[in-house]
Write a structure and sequence with these properties.
heterodimer; A: about 200 residues; Rna Polymerase Sigma Factor, Chain: A; Arc Repressor Mutant, subunit A; 8 helices; elongated; B: mainly alpha; three-stranded mixed sheet; 11 helices
Chain lengths: ~200, ~300
Protein backbone atom coordinates (compact mmCIF):
# COMPACT_ATOMS: atom_id res chain seq x y z
CA UNK A 1 0.00 0.00 0.00
CA UNK A 2 1.45 3.35 -0.91
CA UNK A 3 1.84 6.22 1.49
CA UNK A 4 -1.11 8.24 0.18
CA UNK A 5 -3.47 5.29 0.68
CA UNK A 6 -2.20 4.71 4.18
CA UNK A 7 -2.65 8.39 4.97
CA UNK A 8 -6.21 8.28 3.65
CA UNK A 9 -7.02 5.24 5.77
CA UNK A 10 -5.43 6.82 8.82
CA UNK A 11 -7.50 9.93 8.28
CA UNK A 12 -10.59 7.72 8.48
CA UNK A 13 -9.44 6.34 11.82
CA UNK A 14 -7.51 3.26 10.73
CA UNK A 15 -4.86 2.88 13.41
CA UNK A 16 -3.22 -0.03 11.64
CA UNK A 17 -2.63 2.07 8.53
CA UNK A 18 -1.20 4.84 10.66
CA UNK A 19 1.09 2.36 12.40
CA UNK A 20 2.52 1.37 9.03
CA UNK A 21 3.41 5.01 8.49
CA UNK A 22 4.96 5.05 11.95
CA UNK A 23 7.16 2.07 11.13
CA UNK A 24 8.25 3.74 7.90
CA UNK A 25 9.26 7.05 9.46
CA UNK A 26 10.03 6.33 13.08
CA UNK A 27 13.82 5.98 12.58
CA UNK A 28 14.19 9.38 11.01
CA UNK A 29 11.75 11.01 13.41
CA UNK A 30 13.53 9.50 16.39
CA UNK A 31 16.97 10.53 15.13
CA UNK A 32 15.84 14.10 14.59
CA UNK A 33 14.54 14.11 18.13
CA UNK A 34 17.72 12.50 19.36
CA UNK A 35 19.96 15.06 17.64
CA UNK A 36 17.85 17.87 19.01
CA UNK A 37 17.44 16.56 22.52
CA UNK A 38 20.73 14.71 22.89
CA UNK A 39 19.22 12.11 25.20
CA UNK A 40 17.71 8.77 24.15
CA UNK A 41 14.92 8.74 26.72
CA UNK A 42 13.86 12.31 26.09
CA UNK A 43 14.09 11.72 22.37
CA UNK A 44 11.86 8.65 22.68
CA UNK A 45 9.29 10.63 24.64
CA UNK A 46 9.28 13.39 22.06
CA UNK A 47 8.97 10.86 19.26
CA UNK A 48 6.00 9.15 20.88
CA UNK A 49 4.33 12.49 21.52
CA UNK A 50 4.94 13.42 17.91
CA UNK A 51 3.21 10.30 16.59
CA UNK A 52 0.31 10.67 18.95
CA UNK A 53 -0.10 14.27 17.88
CA UNK A 54 0.26 13.27 14.25
CA UNK A 55 -2.53 10.72 14.52
CA UNK A 56 -4.74 13.12 16.43
CA UNK A 57 -4.29 15.84 13.82
CA UNK A 58 -3.88 13.73 10.72
CA UNK A 59 -7.17 15.05 9.37
CA UNK A 60 -5.45 18.43 9.18
CA UNK A 61 -2.86 17.04 6.78
CA UNK A 62 -3.51 18.61 3.40
CA UNK A 63 -0.95 16.89 1.23
CA UNK A 64 2.67 17.73 0.51
CA UNK A 65 5.63 15.92 2.00
CA UNK A 66 4.38 13.65 4.75
CA UNK A 67 7.92 13.33 6.05
CA UNK A 68 8.19 17.11 6.42
CA UNK A 69 4.81 17.13 8.15
CA UNK A 70 6.00 14.47 10.60
CA UNK A 71 9.30 16.26 11.18
CA UNK A 72 7.42 19.46 11.89
CA UNK A 73 5.41 17.57 14.48
CA UNK A 74 8.50 16.16 16.14
CA UNK A 75 10.33 19.47 16.14
CA UNK A 76 7.32 21.02 17.84
CA UNK A 77 7.41 18.26 20.43
CA UNK A 78 11.12 18.94 20.92
CA UNK A 79 10.47 22.65 21.23
CA UNK A 80 7.99 21.94 24.00
CA UNK A 81 10.42 19.60 25.72
CA UNK A 82 13.28 22.07 25.48
CA UNK A 83 11.13 24.87 26.77
CA UNK A 84 10.54 23.05 30.01
CA UNK A 85 13.81 21.19 30.17
CA UNK A 86 15.82 22.63 33.01
CA UNK A 87 18.21 19.79 33.27
CA UNK A 88 20.62 21.01 30.67
CA UNK A 89 22.51 24.12 31.79
CA UNK A 90 23.95 26.36 29.13
CA UNK A 91 27.51 25.50 28.29
CA UNK A 92 30.04 27.11 26.06
CA UNK A 93 31.27 25.46 22.95
CA UNK A 94 34.86 25.77 24.16
CA UNK A 95 34.58 23.05 26.77
CA UNK A 96 33.17 20.36 24.52
CA UNK A 97 36.35 18.37 24.02
CA UNK A 98 36.39 17.25 27.62
CA UNK A 99 34.06 14.29 27.78
CA UNK A 100 32.28 13.17 30.89
CA UNK A 101 30.75 10.02 32.24
CA UNK A 102 27.23 10.62 30.93
CA UNK A 103 28.28 11.55 27.47
CA UNK A 104 25.09 11.46 25.35
CA UNK A 105 27.17 10.83 22.28
CA UNK A 106 28.79 7.71 23.60
CA UNK A 107 27.48 5.72 20.66
CA UNK A 108 29.67 7.80 18.39
CA UNK A 109 32.66 5.84 19.68
CA UNK A 110 31.38 2.90 17.71
CA UNK A 111 31.87 4.49 14.33
CA UNK A 112 32.80 2.09 11.61
CA UNK A 113 35.89 3.40 9.82
CA UNK A 114 35.73 3.82 6.09
CA UNK A 115 37.86 1.63 3.88
CA UNK A 116 40.34 4.35 3.06
CA UNK A 117 41.14 5.38 6.58
CA UNK A 118 43.16 3.54 9.10
CA UNK A 119 42.33 3.00 12.74
CA UNK A 120 44.02 6.22 13.74
CA UNK A 121 42.07 8.19 11.20
CA UNK A 122 38.86 6.48 12.25
CA UNK A 123 39.48 7.41 15.85
CA UNK A 124 40.11 11.00 14.87
CA UNK A 125 36.90 11.09 12.83
CA UNK A 126 35.01 9.58 15.71
CA UNK A 127 36.28 12.24 18.03
CA UNK A 128 35.46 14.94 15.54
CA UNK A 129 31.91 13.72 14.98
CA UNK A 130 31.37 13.32 18.64
CA UNK A 131 32.52 16.87 19.14
CA UNK A 132 30.19 18.14 16.43
CA UNK A 133 27.25 16.28 17.91
CA UNK A 134 27.90 17.67 21.38
CA UNK A 135 28.57 21.15 20.07
CA UNK A 136 25.26 21.12 18.19
CA UNK A 137 23.43 20.52 21.46
CA UNK A 138 24.76 23.83 22.75
CA UNK A 139 23.21 25.80 19.94
CA UNK A 140 20.01 27.75 20.47
CA UNK A 141 17.00 25.55 19.65
CA UNK A 142 16.12 27.30 16.40
CA UNK A 143 19.65 27.03 15.06
CA UNK A 144 20.05 23.51 16.41
CA UNK A 145 16.93 22.22 14.71
CA UNK A 146 17.87 23.91 11.46
CA UNK A 147 21.36 22.43 11.58
CA UNK A 148 20.03 18.94 12.39
CA UNK A 149 17.46 19.03 9.63
CA UNK A 150 19.90 20.42 7.08
CA UNK A 151 23.33 19.01 7.79
CA UNK A 152 22.45 15.85 9.71
CA UNK A 153 19.24 14.81 7.99
CA UNK A 154 20.11 16.25 4.59
CA UNK A 155 16.87 18.15 4.02
CA UNK A 156 16.91 21.06 1.60
CA UNK A 157 15.95 24.60 2.49
CA UNK A 158 12.37 24.29 1.28
CA UNK A 159 11.70 21.18 3.30
CA UNK A 160 13.16 22.78 6.39
CA UNK A 161 11.13 25.93 5.87
CA UNK A 162 8.01 23.79 5.50
CA UNK A 163 8.80 21.72 8.58
CA UNK A 164 9.62 24.73 10.73
CA UNK A 165 7.02 26.99 9.15
CA UNK A 166 9.48 29.75 8.55
CA UNK A 167 10.70 31.51 5.44
CA UNK A 168 13.61 30.40 3.29
CA UNK A 169 15.58 33.45 4.36
CA UNK A 170 15.10 32.52 8.01
CA UNK A 171 16.32 29.02 7.31
CA UNK A 172 19.44 30.30 5.56
CA UNK A 173 20.14 32.82 8.26
CA UNK A 174 19.75 30.32 11.10
CA UNK A 175 21.81 27.73 9.30
CA UNK A 176 24.66 30.10 8.54
CA UNK A 177 24.82 31.22 12.17
CA UNK A 178 24.75 27.65 13.42
CA UNK A 179 27.48 26.63 11.06
CA UNK A 180 29.59 29.64 11.96
CA UNK A 181 29.43 28.82 15.67
CA UNK A 182 30.27 25.17 15.14
CA UNK A 183 33.01 26.02 12.68
CA UNK A 184 34.64 28.45 15.07
CA UNK A 185 34.41 25.82 17.80
CA UNK A 186 36.12 23.31 15.53
CA UNK A 187 38.87 25.74 14.59
CA UNK A 188 39.46 26.37 18.28
CA UNK A 189 40.25 22.66 18.70
CA UNK A 190 42.83 21.97 16.05
CA UNK A 191 43.74 18.65 17.60
CA UNK A 192 40.42 17.31 16.32
CA UNK A 193 40.98 18.56 12.79
CA UNK A 194 42.92 16.95 9.97
CA UNK A 195 46.53 17.93 9.44
CA UNK A 196 45.84 20.57 6.82
CA UNK A 197 44.02 22.64 9.43
CA UNK A 198 46.84 22.64 11.91
CA UNK A 199 49.00 25.67 11.77
CA UNK B 1 20.66 36.24 -4.00
CA UNK B 2 21.70 39.71 -2.89
CA UNK B 3 25.34 39.11 -2.00
CA UNK B 4 25.90 42.72 -0.92
CA UNK B 5 23.47 42.33 1.99
CA UNK B 6 24.76 38.94 3.09
CA UNK B 7 27.15 38.55 5.93
CA UNK B 8 30.39 36.68 5.38
CA UNK B 9 29.03 33.68 7.28
CA UNK B 10 25.96 33.61 5.07
CA UNK B 11 28.16 33.80 2.02
CA UNK B 12 30.31 30.93 3.27
CA UNK B 13 27.23 28.86 4.04
CA UNK B 14 25.70 29.56 0.66
CA UNK B 15 28.98 28.84 -1.10
CA UNK B 16 29.35 25.52 0.69
CA UNK B 17 25.77 24.63 -0.20
CA UNK B 18 26.31 25.66 -3.78
CA UNK B 19 23.43 28.11 -3.85
CA UNK B 20 25.40 31.11 -5.14
CA UNK B 21 25.00 32.05 -8.76
CA UNK B 22 27.97 31.69 -11.13
CA UNK B 23 28.91 35.34 -10.86
CA UNK B 24 28.52 35.38 -7.09
CA UNK B 25 30.51 32.20 -6.77
CA UNK B 26 33.36 33.63 -8.90
CA UNK B 27 33.46 36.81 -6.87
CA UNK B 28 33.53 34.88 -3.61
CA UNK B 29 36.31 32.59 -4.81
CA UNK B 30 38.36 35.61 -5.85
CA UNK B 31 38.01 37.01 -2.35
CA UNK B 32 38.96 33.69 -0.79
CA UNK B 33 42.06 33.42 -2.95
CA UNK B 34 43.29 36.64 -1.44
CA UNK B 35 42.24 35.82 2.12
CA UNK B 36 43.78 32.80 3.86
CA UNK B 37 41.54 33.16 6.91
CA UNK B 38 38.48 33.09 4.73
CA UNK B 39 39.76 30.00 2.96
CA UNK B 40 40.33 28.36 6.31
CA UNK B 41 36.79 29.15 7.45
CA UNK B 42 35.37 27.82 4.21
CA UNK B 43 37.35 24.62 4.57
CA UNK B 44 36.25 24.20 8.18
CA UNK B 45 32.63 24.68 7.16
CA UNK B 46 32.94 22.06 4.46
CA UNK B 47 34.43 19.67 6.98
CA UNK B 48 31.64 20.41 9.45
CA UNK B 49 28.82 19.74 7.00
CA UNK B 50 30.47 16.62 5.66
CA UNK B 51 31.07 15.14 9.08
CA UNK B 52 27.62 16.09 10.35
CA UNK B 53 26.10 14.24 7.42
CA UNK B 54 28.09 11.20 8.45
CA UNK B 55 26.74 11.14 11.98
CA UNK B 56 25.32 7.65 12.38
CA UNK B 57 21.68 7.14 12.99
CA UNK B 58 20.91 6.10 16.52
CA UNK B 59 19.11 2.82 16.90
CA UNK B 60 15.42 3.20 17.57
CA UNK B 61 14.92 2.00 21.14
CA UNK B 62 11.42 0.70 20.48
CA UNK B 63 8.50 0.87 18.13
CA UNK B 64 6.30 3.93 18.42
CA UNK B 65 3.14 2.37 17.02
CA UNK B 66 -0.12 3.28 18.63
CA UNK B 67 -2.40 0.74 20.34
CA UNK B 68 -5.17 -0.58 18.13
CA UNK B 69 -7.87 0.90 20.30
CA UNK B 70 -6.18 4.30 20.40
CA UNK B 71 -8.76 5.97 18.23
CA UNK B 72 -11.65 4.09 19.77
CA UNK B 73 -11.29 5.38 23.28
CA UNK B 74 -14.54 6.49 24.66
CA UNK B 75 -14.70 10.23 24.97
CA UNK B 76 -14.94 11.62 28.41
CA UNK B 77 -18.54 11.63 29.55
CA UNK B 78 -20.12 14.95 28.93
CA UNK B 79 -21.70 16.56 31.92
CA UNK B 80 -25.42 15.93 31.91
CA UNK B 81 -27.18 18.86 30.45
CA UNK B 82 -29.82 20.25 32.66
CA UNK B 83 -33.36 20.39 31.43
CA UNK B 84 -33.43 24.00 32.57
CA UNK B 85 -30.24 25.85 31.70
CA UNK B 86 -29.13 28.87 33.64
CA UNK B 87 -30.71 31.36 31.29
CA UNK B 88 -34.15 29.93 32.04
CA UNK B 89 -33.69 30.70 35.70
CA UNK B 90 -32.38 34.16 34.93
CA UNK B 91 -35.33 34.99 32.72
CA UNK B 92 -37.71 33.58 35.29
CA UNK B 93 -36.08 35.62 38.01
CA UNK B 94 -36.34 38.76 35.93
CA UNK B 95 -40.01 38.08 35.18
CA UNK B 96 -40.78 37.45 38.84
CA UNK B 97 -38.97 40.62 39.83
CA UNK B 98 -40.98 42.54 37.27
CA UNK B 99 -44.17 41.05 38.64
CA UNK B 100 -43.15 42.03 42.15
CA UNK B 101 -42.42 45.61 41.15
CA UNK B 102 -45.72 45.82 39.30
CA UNK B 103 -47.68 44.51 42.24
CA UNK B 104 -45.86 46.90 44.53
CA UNK B 105 -46.63 49.80 42.24
CA UNK B 106 -50.32 48.94 42.15
CA UNK B 107 -50.38 48.58 45.90
CA UNK B 108 -48.75 51.94 46.45
CA UNK B 109 -51.00 53.61 43.90
CA UNK B 110 -54.09 52.61 45.86
CA UNK B 111 -55.09 55.55 48.11
CA UNK B 112 -55.93 53.61 51.24
CA UNK B 113 -53.37 50.94 50.88
CA UNK B 114 -51.04 52.14 53.54
CA UNK B 115 -53.17 54.48 55.61
CA UNK B 116 -52.77 53.97 59.31
CA UNK B 117 -56.30 52.72 59.70
CA UNK B 118 -55.69 49.94 57.26
CA UNK B 119 -52.82 48.58 59.18
CA UNK B 120 -53.06 45.93 61.82
CA UNK B 121 -56.10 47.35 63.51
CA UNK B 122 -58.14 46.27 60.55
CA UNK B 123 -57.03 42.72 60.87
CA UNK B 124 -59.54 40.08 61.76
CA UNK B 125 -59.98 39.91 65.46
CA UNK B 126 -59.00 36.89 67.39
CA UNK B 127 -61.60 34.84 69.08
CA UNK B 128 -62.91 36.35 72.29
CA UNK B 129 -61.04 35.29 75.33
CA UNK B 130 -63.39 34.44 78.05
CA UNK B 131 -62.45 35.54 81.47
CA UNK B 132 -61.67 32.74 83.89
CA UNK B 133 -64.66 33.70 86.00
CA UNK B 134 -67.34 31.30 87.22
CA UNK B 135 -69.92 30.31 84.67
CA UNK B 136 -73.00 31.58 86.51
CA UNK B 137 -71.90 35.13 86.97
CA UNK B 138 -70.87 35.14 83.33
CA UNK B 139 -74.29 34.00 82.23
CA UNK B 140 -75.97 36.63 84.34
CA UNK B 141 -73.63 39.19 83.02
CA UNK B 142 -74.43 38.19 79.49
CA UNK B 143 -78.15 38.59 80.07
CA UNK B 144 -77.68 41.96 81.68
CA UNK B 145 -74.90 43.12 79.57
CA UNK B 146 -74.52 46.67 78.80
CA UNK B 147 -73.20 47.48 75.48
CA UNK B 148 -70.68 49.95 76.34
CA UNK B 149 -69.73 52.07 73.55
CA UNK B 150 -66.81 54.21 73.94
CA UNK B 151 -66.58 56.69 71.24
CA UNK B 152 -63.55 58.59 70.52
CA UNK B 153 -64.23 62.02 69.32
CA UNK B 154 -62.65 63.82 66.50
CA UNK B 155 -61.53 66.73 68.48
CA UNK B 156 -57.97 67.69 68.45
CA UNK B 157 -57.25 66.05 71.71
CA UNK B 158 -59.21 62.97 70.76
CA UNK B 159 -57.63 62.68 67.38
CA UNK B 160 -54.16 62.78 68.66
CA UNK B 161 -54.86 60.37 71.48
CA UNK B 162 -57.41 58.12 69.93
CA UNK B 163 -55.59 55.06 71.10
CA UNK B 164 -55.20 56.25 74.64
CA UNK B 165 -58.82 55.71 75.73
CA UNK B 166 -58.66 52.21 74.48
CA UNK B 167 -55.44 51.58 76.29
CA UNK B 168 -56.82 53.18 79.36
CA UNK B 169 -59.95 51.11 79.13
CA UNK B 170 -57.98 47.97 78.71
CA UNK B 171 -55.46 48.80 81.35
CA UNK B 172 -57.66 49.96 84.15
CA UNK B 173 -59.39 47.31 86.15
CA UNK B 174 -62.43 49.51 86.64
CA UNK B 175 -63.99 52.40 84.85
CA UNK B 176 -65.75 55.03 86.79
CA UNK B 177 -68.75 55.87 84.64
CA UNK B 178 -69.14 59.35 86.01
CA UNK B 179 -65.53 59.95 85.28
CA UNK B 180 -65.99 58.47 81.86
CA UNK B 181 -68.90 60.79 81.17
CA UNK B 182 -66.84 63.68 82.33
CA UNK B 183 -64.21 62.68 79.92
CA UNK B 184 -66.80 62.29 77.24
CA UNK B 185 -67.74 65.92 77.39
CA UNK B 186 -64.85 67.00 75.25
CA UNK B 187 -65.70 64.13 72.92
CA UNK B 188 -63.23 61.72 74.31
CA UNK B 189 -65.54 58.90 75.33
CA UNK B 190 -69.25 58.30 75.65
CA UNK B 191 -70.84 55.40 77.35
CA UNK B 192 -74.32 54.48 76.39
CA UNK B 193 -76.04 55.46 79.63
CA UNK B 194 -79.37 53.90 78.85
CA UNK B 195 -77.99 50.50 78.31
CA UNK B 196 -75.68 50.95 81.22
CA UNK B 197 -78.54 51.83 83.53
CA UNK B 198 -80.56 48.91 82.20
CA UNK B 199 -77.80 46.69 83.14
CA UNK B 200 -77.67 48.30 86.52
CA UNK B 201 -81.42 47.64 87.12
CA UNK B 202 -80.94 44.01 86.48
CA UNK B 203 -79.42 43.76 89.88
CA UNK B 204 -76.77 41.46 88.83
CA UNK B 205 -73.60 43.25 89.36
CA UNK B 206 -70.94 41.14 87.85
CA UNK B 207 -67.48 41.57 88.95
CA UNK B 208 -66.27 41.75 85.43
CA UNK B 209 -67.26 43.25 82.18
CA UNK B 210 -66.64 41.25 79.09
CA UNK B 211 -65.62 43.26 76.09
CA UNK B 212 -65.25 41.28 72.98
CA UNK B 213 -64.36 42.19 69.49
CA UNK B 214 -67.71 42.35 67.84
CA UNK B 215 -67.22 43.10 64.16
CA UNK B 216 -70.48 45.02 63.81
CA UNK B 217 -69.97 48.47 65.21
CA UNK B 218 -72.69 49.88 67.34
CA UNK B 219 -73.98 53.07 65.84
CA UNK B 220 -73.53 55.87 68.23
CA UNK B 221 -76.15 58.56 68.67
CA UNK B 222 -75.58 61.37 66.34
CA UNK B 223 -75.95 63.91 69.12
CA UNK B 224 -73.16 62.34 71.04
CA UNK B 225 -70.98 61.68 68.06
CA UNK B 226 -70.99 64.86 66.14
CA UNK B 227 -67.36 64.67 65.21
CA UNK B 228 -66.74 61.04 64.60
CA UNK B 229 -66.59 61.27 60.90
CA UNK B 230 -63.73 63.62 60.95
CA UNK B 231 -61.36 61.72 63.12
CA UNK B 232 -59.53 58.45 63.00
CA UNK B 233 -60.98 55.64 64.89
CA UNK B 234 -59.61 52.66 66.54
CA UNK B 235 -61.60 49.64 67.35
CA UNK B 236 -60.58 47.32 70.03
CA UNK B 237 -61.87 43.87 69.32
CA UNK B 238 -60.03 41.82 71.80
CA UNK B 239 -61.79 40.43 74.78
CA UNK B 240 -60.97 41.83 78.14
CA UNK B 241 -62.54 41.56 81.51
CA UNK B 242 -63.10 45.06 82.76
CA UNK B 243 -65.46 45.92 85.60
CA UNK B 244 -67.53 48.99 84.82
CA UNK B 245 -68.48 51.16 87.70
CA UNK B 246 -71.36 53.56 87.41
CA UNK B 247 -72.00 55.92 90.30
CA UNK B 248 -69.87 53.86 92.52
CA UNK B 249 -71.53 50.58 91.59
CA UNK B 250 -70.65 48.01 89.16
CA UNK B 251 -73.01 48.91 86.40
CA UNK B 252 -73.10 46.01 84.06
CA UNK B 253 -71.31 43.30 82.29
CA UNK B 254 -71.85 44.43 78.73
CA UNK B 255 -71.90 42.32 75.69
CA UNK B 256 -68.65 42.12 73.85
CA UNK B 257 -68.48 45.36 72.09
CA UNK B 258 -66.06 47.43 70.10
CA UNK B 259 -64.33 50.03 72.11
CA UNK B 260 -64.33 52.47 69.30
CA UNK B 261 -66.99 53.14 66.77
CA UNK B 262 -65.25 53.41 63.44
CA UNK B 263 -66.07 55.98 60.87
CA UNK B 264 -67.21 54.89 57.38
CA UNK B 265 -63.67 55.20 56.10
CA UNK B 266 -62.38 53.18 58.98
CA UNK B 267 -65.05 50.58 58.39
CA UNK B 268 -63.93 50.31 54.81
CA UNK B 269 -60.33 50.10 55.84
CA UNK B 270 -61.11 47.62 58.54
CA UNK B 271 -62.91 45.46 56.05
CA UNK B 272 -59.66 45.03 54.13
CA UNK B 273 -57.50 42.29 55.58
CA UNK B 274 -53.79 42.68 56.10
CA UNK B 275 -52.95 40.07 53.49
CA UNK B 276 -54.65 40.95 50.27
CA UNK B 277 -54.27 38.91 47.13
CA UNK B 278 -52.17 41.65 45.63
CA UNK B 279 -49.81 41.71 48.56
CA UNK B 280 -49.61 37.97 48.59
CA UNK B 281 -48.81 38.04 44.89
CA UNK B 282 -46.05 40.58 45.49
CA UNK B 283 -44.51 38.48 48.25
CA UNK B 284 -44.66 35.31 46.18
CA UNK B 285 -43.13 37.12 43.21
CA UNK B 286 -40.33 38.47 45.36
CA UNK B 287 -39.52 35.05 46.79
CA UNK B 288 -39.67 33.50 43.35
CA UNK B 289 -37.33 36.12 41.93
CA UNK B 290 -34.81 35.53 44.69
CA UNK B 291 -34.94 31.74 44.42
CA UNK B 292 -34.70 31.67 40.63
CA UNK B 293 -31.94 34.24 40.69
CA UNK B 294 -29.95 32.14 43.14
CA UNK B 295 -30.48 29.00 41.05
CA UNK B 296 -29.41 30.80 37.90
CA UNK B 297 -26.31 32.10 39.62
CA UNK B 298 -25.41 28.64 40.90
CA UNK B 299 -25.73 27.08 37.46
CA UNK B 300 -23.56 29.50 35.58
Amino acid sequence: MDEATLIGLAQRGDVSAFNELVLTHQAQVYNVAYRIMGDPATAADATQEAFVSAYTHIKDYRGGSFKSWLLRTVTNACYDALRYDKRRPAASLEGLTEGNGDDPEGDFNDFIPSRDEGPADAAERSDLRGFIARAALQLPPDQRITFVLSDVQGMNYEEIADAMRVSLGTVKSRLSRARAKLRDALLAHEELLPDEFRQ
Amino acid sequence: MNVDRMTEDELISAYVDGTLSGQERAAFEARAQANAALRRRVAATRLLTAEARQLPNAAVPRNFILPRDFGQKQPAPQPKRSLFPAWVFRIGSAAAALLFVSALAVEVARPAAFSPSALPYGAPAPAPVEAPAPAAPLADAARNAVEATVTLGASAEGATTNVQPMIATLALPTIDMAQAQTKAEPGAAVLSAAEASGAAESGSAPETLLLTATPAPVPAPAATLPEIAAGPEVSQRSAFTVPVVVDGQVAATPEPTPVTAPSPQAQEAQAEPLITPLRALAVVALITALVLGALGWLRK
